[in-house]
Design goal:
The structure holds 3 protein chains of 3 kinds. Chain B is mostly helical. In chain B, 79% of the residues lie in helices and 0% in strands. Chain B is extended and about 60 Å long. By secondary structure, chain C is α/β, with parallel strands linked by helices. Chain C is 45% helix and 19% strand. Chain C contains 13 helices and 15 strands. Chain C has helices at residues 2-18, 123-131, 133-136, 170-191, 202-216, 233-251, 263-279, 298-312, 327-336, 351-357, 365-375, 378-410, 414-427; strands at residues 25-28, 40-43, 51-55, 66-73, 79-86, 91-95, 110-117, 140-144, 147-151, 221-226, 256-260, 291-293, 316-322, 340-345, 360-363. The longest helix of chain C has 33 residues, at 378-410. Chains A and C meet through loops of A and strand 5 and strand 6 of C.
């Protein structure tokens, strides 16, 4: 009884230690967890699978280092699928501090899949003023991206010769840590009828269900779980799948703490009412 | 008539009205007003960044000068600020972009900013645990319902849920798409109307608490 | 169509087989399988001018071919390349952009021609064609070197014009008129002295208590505006509440700390607090350095504010504005130092975190109405009443939509289905 009552006043650092252990241990021991793709994730995958060879897919890096564990695995899985299907990624960046992450992921997977810069993929880098830019790409991408991320003129790359505006982009995939996706949906989707798929951090993914339900986005990849599902779909389980064990166990620990907390709460309530009865 | 607060209220009203009118008239000069004002905002915001830097560095400079408690950390901040700016400028001149593979700025980014940001964000996992532990108590019927739903969703969102029952993730998905969305849309409608109310109060000069 | 395509492919092959490397432009007479191929165009409706939309509908088999669109200017007969893209795009807009404002001028007649080619268009061929105005006007099959091109007939004269009213926004105008009418009605009602009711909001009643208790303990108050900019409505709402809170702070003669994410917000907050202190008759207590800039990095900001909380140990923490993933990091730290916390945001994903970690949370529109609640001027209350009436109106629309969709799509009653579609069309912008 006493133990439970003490639990009510437990120092929160005690909870933190438990969480740290269940996050770190599975990452070291790597137990296997089966990952079953959910429908919103599968919708993104299927949409890309059905794109004709040679289509351009624009990837917008709207996250920074803080969201790297959630977004980077998806970026890599997505790029593997694109290169495998001979689709052409065009990378742009709306969050300045995400630029190196986008470049890192793109170069890593391009090297792995043997893709050639300027022919199979391109990296346009960051430009300030995202609202004006997202509207502007509807007219002409060169108004904002005259050169790529290394200041090489766009027209010197074969794959960009025929890319002018959203008409030439089969799908836009936004990797989102904040609310930039609202502008993509409002302007690129609403005004220019651009097809959009989104990957959001788990914490803000519930917000995007509006747009998934209403068909404004073709699919939704939520957090590391979504990334893990995507890795499974692409057929190359990687870091996100490994992270699923940590996530499963930490959820379990939180649930256990909630249950213990409630038992303690009820015991306390009963003792109080008994004392009151005396 | 236009004295004291009158002038800013009049300007607010005028600008508000012009923006509303320009929404419906694409013809020049109205059609470009939104874009022009956004550009003006960017320019003004660029200059106010100087005020921000002045505020930040000024505060820590005073701390160092007065030898306040923990003044050493203020010194670290000033050093970090100056070093990042200098390295950024030097490397941009050297490579054309600060984020070149061989640039020291990339080094600072990869080995300072990335781990620092990731650490702050990952604190969320710990804080969610302690907040959930405190908040989810079955105090009454509503709280119990919330508690049960939370546990179902927590299990349904990880592969563990799939192992317990294949219906658990499906049920979670339903919770997310139906009851969750219904509540959110309701709140969202209220927020939009609230935003409308705030805008109209400011444009008409009824709300003045923000004025200096 | 298929027959024509085959014919063209045949002609291309035959030319490839028999042609020789040469720079002369050959026009193939009587080889015109696509006589009816044409571009169509029109002025882009409801725009500010300087834009023409071009459409085409060629068979799917040509989807991977290239289309180079040429534009001829009526006034000086100059021919330029308007754009080039894949045939499968089906449409393109030729517009004046910031980079090239002189592209399409209003009220000038333009004629468009398309060149279809299997490979990317040959620059030499293009130059030859453009310089050779008379040849160019003939539509049909051309050979240049080893390549074959098909040139469509010219469009009719098209000119772009600037619209004086965006017709697609009529539904918005109608809603605006309704909204303006409702607001003016209630503001008049409030002016005439009618009592208007606003329900109790616990979080706002606690403002006085929070500031008072903090003063008693000799601790400052911290006001966090989140990571929004001054262009975001929640930040503006947060600033209006800051004005009211700062006035109470001045009344109690205590300190208020406002760590900021954006320099513009910081400057505005400084003015708001200064004004509130002046209004309360205590301008001497205002300290500009208490409203400071931290950083424009989300988690850097969270770290900075958390550190400040741990050092200054404020007795009351207000979190009012736009918050994202840092919401709980701030609120849990505030909880750990035992401060009374009053939060509010419009970000629905962050609301559960605030509810779990704070003493009081203003949910969305409560936050928007907070400034009104704290002042309770009749005119301000009038605007809240107007919002409520509009809400009833929207609820009514939702119920109608629900009933119509059940009857129209669920029970398949044709008239109601049509009515529902009409309603959706009417409301769409």
């Amino acid at each position: 009884m006493n133990i439970f009552l003490k639990l009510l006043k437990v120092d929160r650092r005690f909870i933190y230690i438990f969480i740290a252990i269940v996050v770190i241990l599975p990452l070291l021991l790597k137990p296997k967890f089966p990952v079953v793709p959910s429908k919103p994730v599968k919708d993104v995958y299927d949409y890309i699978e059905n794109l004709p060879e040679g289509s351009n897919v624009m990837i917008s890096i709207d996250y920074d280092a803080a969201s790297m564990p959630e977004q980077q695995p998806f970026l890599e899985a997505l790029l593997r699928q694109l290169f495998r299907n001979k689709l052409k990624p065009i990378l742009i960046v709306q969050w300045q501090l995400g630029a190196p992450l986008g470049t890192m992921g793109l170069e890593k997977i391009a090297k792995e899949m043997g893709a050639v810069y300027g022919v199979d993929y391109i990296n346009l880098g960051y430009r300030p003023g995202y609202v004006a830019q997202i509207v502007g790409i509807g007219k002409e991408i060169r108004d904002y991206f005259k050169v790529d991320y290394r200041n090489v003129p766009l027209d010197s790359f074969p794959m960009m010769k025929n890319v002018h505006n959203y008409n030439d982009i089969a799908l836009l995939v936004g990797l989102e840590a904040g609310a930039t996706y609202l502008v993509w949906i409002e302007y690129a989707g609403g005004r220019f009828k651009q097809k959009i798929a989104l990957a959001l951090n788990a914490v803000s993914a519930p917000d995007a269900y509006y747009f998934y339900q209403s068909g404004q986005i073709v699919g939704l990849v939520g957090g590391m779980k979504g990334a893990a599902e995507y890795e499974v779909l692409v057929g190359k389980p990687d870091i996100a799948v490994a992270g699923m064990a940590s996530q499963s166990y930490s959820h379990l620990v939180i649930i256990l703490f909630i249950i213990l907390g409630n038992i303690a709460y009820f015991i306390e309530k009963r003792t109080k009412s008994k004392e009151g009865g005396k | 008539m236009l004295k004291g607060k009158g002038i800013p209220i009049f300007i607010t009203f005028l600008v508000g009205m012009i923006m509303i009118v320009s929404f419906f008239i694409p013809h020049k000069p109205f059609g470009d007003i939104e874009k022009i004002s956004l550009n003006w905002y960017s320019i003004i915001a660029g200059f106010t960044m100087l005020l921000g830097v002045d505020s930040l560095i000024g505060m820590h400079f005073r701390k160092v000068k007065r030898k306040d408690e923990n003044w050493f950390f203020s010194l670290v901040l000033i050093f970090g600020f100056v070093a990042t700016v200098v390295v950024g400028i030097v490397e941009t001149v050297r490579f054309g972009t600060a984020f070149d593979d061989k640039s020291y700025f990339t080094y600072i980014y990869n080995y300072f900013i990335v781990p620092l940001q990731a650490t702050m964000f990952s604190l969320l996992a710990f804080f969610i645990a302690s907040a959930a532990y405190r908040a989810f108590r079955a105090r009454n019927f509503d709280a119990t319902l919330l508690l049960i739903t939370a546990i179902i969703v927590m299990l349904g969102r990880v592969p563990l849920g799939e192992q317990i029952s294949p219906y658990l993730p499906k049920f979670t998905e339903w919770i997310m798409q139906v009851p969750q969305m219904a509540a959110k849309r309701g709140i969202g409608l209220g927020i939009s109307l609230g935003a409308l109310g705030v805008s109209i109060r400011i444009i008409l000069g009824i709300e003045r608490s923000y004025l200096s | 169509m298929l027959k024509k395509t085959l014919l063209l492919i045949f002609s291309v092959f035959s030319i490839l087989l028999f042609s020789q490397e040469s720079d002369s432009l050959i026009f193939l007479e009587n080889q015109n399988p696509f006589l009816d191929f044409k571009l169509t165009g029109n002025d882009i409706p409801n725009d500010g001018g300087g834009g023409i939309q071009i459409n085409w509908c060629f068979p799917d088999t040509l989807g991977n071919w290239f289309l180079t669109v040429l534009r001829r200017d009526d006034s000086n007969n100059v021919i330029v390349v308007a754009t080039d893209l894949l045939v499968s795009s089906m449409q393109v807009r030729d517009v004046s952009s910031e980079e090239e404002p002189s592209r399409v001028k209003d009220n000038t007649n333009y004629y468009y021609t398309g060149i279809l080619s299997k490979n990317m268009i040959n620059e030499k061929f293009l130059n030859k064609l453009i310089s050779n105005g008379s040849e160019y006007s003939k539509n049909g099959v051309y050979i240049f070197g080893n390549d074959t091109f098909y040139i469509t007939g010219e469009t009719e004269a098209i000119f772009s014009k600037s619209s004086w009213f965006n017709l697609s926004r009529i539904p918005v105008l109608v809603s605006l008129i309704i909204i303006a009418f409702v607001f003016l009605y209630y503001l008049n009602l409030a002016k005439s002295g009618k009592d208007l009711y606003i329900r109790k909001i616990n979080g706002l009643d606690a403002v006085e208590e929070a500031v008072g208790r903090s003063t008693e303990m000799g601790k400052p108050i911290m006001y966090i505006l989140g990571i929004g900019y001054v262009t975001d409505i929640p930040t503006i709402a947060g600033l209006t509440i800051l004005g009211r809170v700062a006035k109470k702070v001045a009344d109690y003669e205590t300190r208020i700390l406002v760590p900021s994410y954006d320099p513009v917000v910081m400057t505005t907050a400084q003015e708001v607090v200064k004004e509130a202190f002046t209004e309360a008759g205590r301008p001497d207590l205002y300290n500009k350095n208490d409203i400071m800039y931290i950083t424009q990095d989300q988690f850097g900001y969270a770290a900075g504010v958390d550190g400040m909380m741990m050092r200054e140990k404020p007795g009351a923490v207000f979190l009012q504005g736009l918050f994202f993933a840092e919401s709980l990091i701030l609120a849990e730290t505030g909880h750990s130092i035992g401060a009374i916390q009053i939060s509010g945001t419009t970000e629905t994903a962050q609301l559960p975190f605030f509810v779990a970690a704070c003493d009081y949370t203003l949910i969305g529109e409560e936050m928007m109405a907070a400034s009104v609640y704290l002042q309770k001027e009749p005119m301000m209350l009038g605007s809240i009443a107007a919002e409520d009436l509009l809400k009833v109106f929207i609820m009514f629309l939702i119920i109608i939509g629900f009933v119509f969709s059940v009857l129209g799509y669920g029970l398949r009653i044709e008239i109601i289905k049509n009515l529902f579609d009409w309603l959706i069309n009417l409301l769409q912008v």
